[in-house]
Amino acid sequence: MTGWVLIVDDEEMIRENLKAYLEDEGLWVAAFEAVTPALNWLMDGGYCRVCIMDMRLPDMDGNTAIRILHRLYPEMKFLIHTGSSSYSLPDDLRAMGLDDACVYQKPLGDMAPLAAVARTLALRENRL
Amino acid sequence: MALIVAVSLLWSWMLRRRVARRTWEMQRELGERQQVEAALRESEVRFRDVTEAASDWIWEMDENLRFTYLSERFYALTGIAPQHVLGRARWELAIIESAADRQKWRQHRQMLEKRLPFRDFVYRTGIGNRHGVDRYLKVSGKPIHDDQGRFFGYRGTGTDITEQVKAEAALRESEVRLRRIIDLVPHMIFAKDRHGRFLLANQATAAAYGLTVQELVNHSQRMVHGIDEEAERMLADDREVIESGASKQIAEESFTDHTGHIRTLQTIKIPFSEPGLSETAVLGVSIDITEQKQAKEEVARMRLYLKNIIDSMPSVLIGVDPWGYITVLNQPAEQACGASWETAQGRFFGELFPQLESQFDQIRQAIRLGHPIKTPLMTLENQGELHYADVMVYPLIADSAGGAVIRMDDVTARVRIESMMVQTEKMLSVGGLAAGMAHEINNPLGAILQGSQNILRRIDPAMPQNCAAAAAIGIDLGRLNRYLEQRRILHFLEGIREAGARAAKIVADMLSFSRRSESRFAPVNVEDLLETVLRLAASDYDLKKKYDFKRITIQRDFDSHLCMVHCDKTEIEQVLLNLLKNAAQAMAECGASSPTILLRTRYEPQYVLIEVVDNGPGMDEKTLKRIFEPFFTTKEVGAGTGLGLSVSYFIVTEQHRGRLSVTSKPGQGACFSIRLPLGREALP
Fold first, then answer.
1. CA of A42, closest CA in chain B: separation in Å?
2. Which residue of B has its CA nearest to A10?
């Protein structure tokens, strides 16, 4: 079940464009407009190794979503895609292994760098 | 009978003979007596002549001590008529007032009662006197005895000494008066002989030695003066005056008085001789000028103190009289006009400060109204540079010479800082606005940018997935592409992407106006930083393609003492890259023949100075004024966001607490100076 990427973003065109680009890169993408449907999908047996998470979401904020997902799926890696210029990583997220390189500022003029990282993470060997 | 006759005859003869003898005797006696009488007469005449010509008179008293005789001289000399005197005793004529008088008279009368001679008894009489003035008489007398030694009075001489007594009294009085005067004088008055012995000293002199006049006079200065060197110096002056015979003026000499206080004296010494003195002495007057000197020094000290105070003021201060002539300049004023106070004094202020000449009306008005008149933000031309000054004319209220003080403060720096603060405020509000909008704008921008990227990718015939999808619906992707090119659709798409990218850049630039944390501050090597920026510039697309960065000569003038500066490396890189870009662009636009950028670093007391100097077209005053304003640009539309320099300004001044300034003139290139604070504590 490698090669899956989960995208959570409430902006449809952002979501769709990222999905299109990643699919063109040969990845499987599950894209949701909020955290709850994404969790439902995972509960129903969906599986992915990497998640591209927006911060401002309708049902909860991205940081909380990452904390929940990390507890449920410790091997899941996160990339943050935010439109907020003042975003900075909370310390507990840093403790999970996230760093400033995981944060991508909207708008992305070129999706290639993000896609490359997502691809690497999605296709990595599962060491667990 | 015969006998009788004979006897008678004999008797008669004898008698005759006797008579004859007696007659002869008598004749002889008479002759002698006549002789004696003549002699006596002669002697009396001589005596009278003598007594009448003498300054003395002769008097006689009887055994009861009452005057019986006074020679004629008495009246002539005393003016007292003899009838007031004859028949009276001497003490009945005398004026006896004091106890001393009474004592004197008691003794005198005792002597008279003992019939003793006396000499030079002086008494005062006020009786029957022609002049109505008391007379002083001096008398001497001897007792007179007859052949049997019986006392029958006194005889003697008298003389009128009134004038002499008066002269003596006057002399005494004048001496006392003189004494009073010299004792009243607060200055030291003294006379000394050549051995330093005081012949005369007034109270002030004696007091200076802690002595009375009596204690000081007749003593040598060496004995009474505590400080030997002082005494010797003064005595040397004395000898000089005595020997040269010329006076000497000593403008200032120190004198230690008996309490140990050092006083400053001003002394005049003159040679001094008097009938009673065997050799020349020195007469001197010393004036104590200690307080005067102190006061003078105090005035000088105060003047210097006030001069220092006015010099310490940064304002230009010009004191003028009511007619505008300079009375005082402080140091900043001296610097401003290039003339010293001394040379400027008395010259018309407008001559030295032509830029202030228009203030003459204000001076007159301020003096007339008695209150200061301000002229804020006066614009002054100083060597081609525009300066702003606050000028205040302050009237001087004085008893005699009024006038005014012109105070001028160069507020150019303040005006500039104020305008920069306004600028900063503008930027901060832009930043605040941007932060609020960023999220809302970034999402649609993301859709535009990502959408156009996907479109371009998905019509690319090089991508197998595209070809497969096209083939499935029977479209030739190569031909579609030709169509898209022919109709310039690809070009439009590229335009959308670029426009989106530019909008994204503007938002990002605007966002950098918000204050950020300085977590990224770290010590950075200035030289490394500059080299990194040069490398970035060389690989920068715009610089490489549009402005031909390789053609630009880069000169380095690095201060070897300089190494680390505390800053946000990426931000300062951004600032420097921006400056390089602007320089390259400006030089490319004007077509400079040998475009050169000089990078200079300098160590300043509180800052690290980094300068970017180009030899491009430069800027005019108007452009310079607005250069750091957000959205101000000289570039053609689309070539820049108009935020580059204001972002740089913001990064340097707000985030690094440094300074960014520019100097330029049209045709003379531009020099941008970045000053970053050296100390960490200077950072926010």
1. 26
2. B443
